[in-house]
Design a protein that fits this description.
This protein is mostly helical. It is built from 15 helices and no strands.
Length: about 400
């Protein structure tokens, strides 16, 4: 049961980080309308997010691995991200929103090296399950944000909505520190309890060199990067498409995005536990194929109900494989380098995802929003091809 309590709480923290970015993306169409932004200007927010995430990756992994203070950095990530979301409500114009997005992106990727390596080290024999609970929290945060904020936006402005949305992550950060620290003290006397690992500067550099020479790790990171291109593009362009092309109201748009993210709530634990038993590759391949087929099929749908059903099925495949990819990475990585390996993966993801909103925004401005979905489908096809290169072995091997 320990994996469910600890993994669930860390997952809740992960959900709070995604609540922050989910709230911003949900408010983005209304921000764009208020500030009279083009699609490419709106998409630029996601590119700024990825640039900030990439920049944070340069230091977040080394800081986590060399200090070993994984719980502390999780809490810091939440608090800084919360402050940035509150600043969104006070930003005077486009430049202010850009600054807020920089901090949201940076703190988002401060979270991942700390949390993923923390759970991976603590639950080595249940890594897929533990990281699926972590991913489950992300799906809940992404799904609940539009569901709850949609009705709120009918009553108050988007600025006031952003201010109120900044409160829940603070509560989660406090609970995270109090419970995890107490849990670690209770288990400190157990000889079988994995201790928080940290490395010296020289050992870290040697480990980093070995990590960068691992071809399988690099291939997995690139594959995950193309999958993330599609995911980040969908987070930007789905709300815009639902509001502008499908003409959905804010509350109906919130329900539609909840269906997209909510499917991942069910899929993540199933996929994570399954991958512990049969290996990572077959689960990842199944999710990639399902996502690609549905994503390309969405371009043929004009009916709002059919479209919402389609994006819920797509979300099931897209978000199911996220924790499995993270578990696969941890399988290939020494415990003391887990934070840096996570930074490497998220750094490559950020590099590739930087271009996704800009290209998608350009296509949407020139040829209509639906053209952006063709581009995102192409990124998923590339991910399908790359995953075939990786060996099909169970984690125990």
């Amino acid at each position: 049961m320990k994996v469910y309590t600890v993994g669930g709480l860390v997952g809740l923290g992960h959900g709070a980080t995604h609540w922050i970015i989910g709230a911003f993306y949900f408010l983005l169409p209304f921000i764009a309308d208020d500030l009279n932004l083009s699609y490419i200007e709106a998409g630029a927010f996601a590119t700024i997010f990825q640039i900030a995430s990439f920049s944070a990756n340069i230091i977040s992994g080394p800081v986590v691995d060399m200090t070993g203070r994984r719980v502390l950095w999780q809490a810091a990530s939440l608090l800084i991200g919360t402050a940035a979301l509150f600043f969104v409500s006070e930003a005077a114009g486009y430049v202010g929103l850009v600054i807020a997005m920089v901090f949201i992106g940076a703190t988002n990727n401060l979270w991942h090296p700390a949390a993923i390596s923390y759970l991976s080290n603590r639950f080595r024999d249940q890594r897929g399950l533990a990281l699926s609970l972590h991913a489950l929290g992300a799906n809940i945060g992404d799904a609940v944000a539009p569901l709850l904020l949609g009705p709120v936006l009918l009553i108050i402005t988007w600025r006031e909505t952003a201010a109120w949305a900044s409160l829940p992550p603070v509560i989660v950060a406090i609970a995270l520190v109090l419970f995890l620290k107490r849990s670690q003290k209770q288990e400190a006397k157990s000889a079988t309890t994995p201790k928080e690992s940290k490395v010296s500067g020289s050992d870290y550099i040697a480990g980093l060199k070995a990590l960068l020479k691992n071809k399988l790790v690099l291939i997995l990171c690139v594959m995950s990067g193309f999958r993330n291109m599609a995911q980040q593009g969908l987070l930007v362009f789905l709300p815009l498409y639902l509001l502008n092309d499908m003409q959905l109201s804010p509350e109906m748009m919130g329900l539609a995005l909840f269906a997209f993210q909510g499917a991942g709530i069910m899929a993540a634990p199933i996929a994570g536990g399954w991958s512990d038993k049969i290996g990572r590759r077959p689960v990842v391949m199944s999710g990639l194929v399902l996502t690609t087929v549905i994503l390309l099929g969405l371009t043929l749908l004009n009916n709002p109900i059919a479209f919402v059903i389609g994006i819920s099925i797509m979300g099931f495949g897209l978000f199911a494989i996220r924790p499995v990819v993270h578990s696969w990475l941890m399988d290939m990585t020494p415990d003391e380098m887990g934070g840096s390996a996570t930074s490497l993966m998220f750094g490559i993801q950020s590099l590739l995802a930087m271009v996704s909103p800009i290209i998608g925004g350009y296509l949407a401005d020139e040829y209509g929003l639906i053209s952006a979905f063709y581009f995102l489908g192409g990124a998923m096809l590339i991910a399908n091809v790359i995953v075939m290169i990786l060996p099909n072995e169970k984690p125990a091997n």
